[in-house]
Amino acid sequence: MPLLIKGGEIVTGTEHYIADIYCEHERITQIDRNIDAPSGVEVIDASGKYVFPGFIDPHVHIYLPFMGTFSKDTYETASKAALVGGTTTMIEMVCPSRDMSAAEGFRLWQEQAAGKSACDYTYHMGVTRFDDENAAQLREIVASGIASFKIFLAYKGAFGIDDTELYHTLKLAKELGVIVTAHCENETLVAERQKELLAAGLTGPEQHEASRPPVVEAEGVHHLMTFAELTGAHVYIVHLSCEEALRAALAARFRGVNVSVETLIQYLLLDKTDAERPEFEGAKYVMSPPLRDKRNQPVLWNGLQSGEIQTVATDHAPFDFREQKPMGRDDFTKIPNGIPSLEERVKLLFSHGVKAGKLDLHTFVNVASTNAAKTFGLFPRKGAIQIGADADLVIYDPEYRGTISAKTQMMNVDYSAFEGWEFQGRAETVTMRGEVAVRDGKFVGTVGRGQMLRRQPAHF
Ligand SMILES: [Zn+2]
After folding, report:
1. What is the pTM of this model?
2. Cis before residue 289, ω within 30 degrees of 0?
3. Which of 4, 104, 287, 405 is most buried (most C-beta within 10 Å)?
4. pLDDT band at residue 457, thresholds of 50, 70 and 90?
5. In this predicted model, what pLDDT tens digit does every residue of 321-365 receive, in sequence order?
């Protein structure tokens, strides 16, 4: 059924104005003042509300075999949680183990999603091994519509690659016009620090940050920047957490390195004292890079507002507090890493960014949607409100007030890192390619309607 969204204040990365939006055949077909509703059209009153382009989370894990267990969400639970939170597109990391070929990994990850997602999705293809066989397969995967890679400078032996592989991955990416997203931490330093702490009897979750301090992340960033400078590849630093790492990225950008930067909602709002909570509760707050000293938060907020940092993601990776985090009760290095946030990213960014005066509305839209669409080859199909764009729209009530709780969340995990946090504003109605997927904050969409989005690399 065609949709007419009437009287909302349309806010994109560059403009804001009041107009009606007509959607037909999954797309936006008209934007104008006072569009009349033909019969048979569903009309949604958006007066007094914002209308944003559907939000994009450019870094999530849904299917994730990791540290001896599996993350909890399925495509069904994750995509519902995403939509309820205003996110209409997710980009998942394909993370094959090193003994698995790229083709096998890509197939396995697609099987998890096929027919089960309520929102659209695409992938960053994990390069966890680089040899001739994998390189040939990576070319085919790129040709099939996956225009970004993911590499790990951390997790050696699991997903991590060595410097020879890094060099050749970036050269291939440069040749194909593919952007390379990278987890930047010096794995050797992490491993040695972990051994020292454990040997000293320091085993709790609060030790996680000490095992991978800011300089370890900054070294990882500088390391990647050196390889990017030599190869000319476009790189994207995932989950940047601290000032030291940002400085390393900005220094490289100043030298002409083509680098984009992502931070996470967790780093903007949580800090390392959360991982110090007693009774092992700190384990809820273990992820990598770790939550940092609070001094970094204004640096990250300013970096977003000034354009130094391009995107806010979640690195969503849900592991239960009761059954899974305790795998590391006596050894913090065995705590499954991740702070689930897919559902809460947009409302937290709006409450603590826009409402708190740290982000203007356009920057909010850019860092939560449009910049990811542009960086990863989805714009203007996604991340835009214009004729011809997919009708992924978020009608946002800026005055709504609520409280976050694991009891009411859609994410399939037994805790919320933001339990009891109050927020202001929410996605009231969400459309996904012209179908209403959320009404009055509740999921009413269709599981299986989500499509895998195919993206062209920059050189095609
Ligand atoms: Zn990740």
Report:
1. 0.98
2. yes
3. 287
4. confident
5. 999 999 999 999 999 999 999 999 999 999 999 999 999 999 999
C-alpha of residue 181 to centroid of ligand 1, in Å: 10
pLDDT in tens, 234-261: 999 999 999 999 999 999 999 999 999 9
Write the pLDDT tens digit of every residue in 73-129.
Answer: 999 999 999 999 999 999 999 999 888 999 999 999 999 999 999 999 999 999 999
Residue type, 415: Y
Report yes or no: 360 and 281 within 8 Å, Cβ to Cβ.
no
Q: What spacing in Å lies between the alpha carbon of 80 and ligand 1's midpoint? A: 20
Distance CA 337, CA 327 (A): 11
What is the whole-number distance in angstroms between the Cα of residue 59 and the centre of ligand 1? 6
Answer whether 172's CB lies under 8 Å from 161's CB. Answer: no
Q: How confident is the model at residue 459 (pLDDT cuts 50, 70, 90)?
A: low
Measured CA to CA, the distance from residue 93 to residue 192 in angstroms comes to 27
User: Residue 398 in contact with residue 425, Cβ under 8 Å?
Assistant: yes
Structure tokens, 27: 């797309």
Rounded CA gap, 83 and 227, in Å?
37
* Ligand 1: centre distance to CA 315 (Å): 5
DSSP string, 231-298: H---EEE-S--SHHHHHHHHHHHHHT--EEEEEEHHHHH--GGGGG-TTTGGGGG--SSPP--TTHHH
Question: What's the 200 CA to ligand 1 centre distance in angstroms?
Answer: 29
Residue 150 CA to ligand 1 centre (angstroms): 9
